[in-house]
Design brief:
single chain
Length: 90
């Protein structure tokens, strides 16, 4: 009975020794690479504030936009505006 227990132990002993032998053959003998230098942390800009509908800047931008729109309409926006004194065709 003791021989049977020993016989079942031998294959796992041989398998373990084989794994150790294969592992030592596959081991990389090259030196380990040097550690990477410490990362430089970039400066973070403070977040920009979102404009609100009733802020001074928003109202000024709306007035500028309206003035530009008004300048693009009517007679003031035509080609002939610059030369109002000239006759057409002659």
């Amino acid at each position: 009975m003791a021989g049977l227990a020993f016989a079942s132990f031998i294959p796992s002993l041989i398998g373990g020794l084989g794994a150790m032998a294969i592992g030592s053959m596959l081991k990389d003998d090259a030196p380990a690479p040097a550690a990477a230098p410490a990362a430089v942390i970039p400066e973070v800009e403070p977040p920009t504030t979102m404009p609100t509908a009733n802020s001074r800047e928003s109202k000024a931008a709306a007035r500028r936009s309206m003035a530009q729109q008004m300048a693009r309409r009517g007679r003031a926006s035509t080609i002939l505006t610059d030369n109002a004194d000239a006759k057409l065709g002659g």
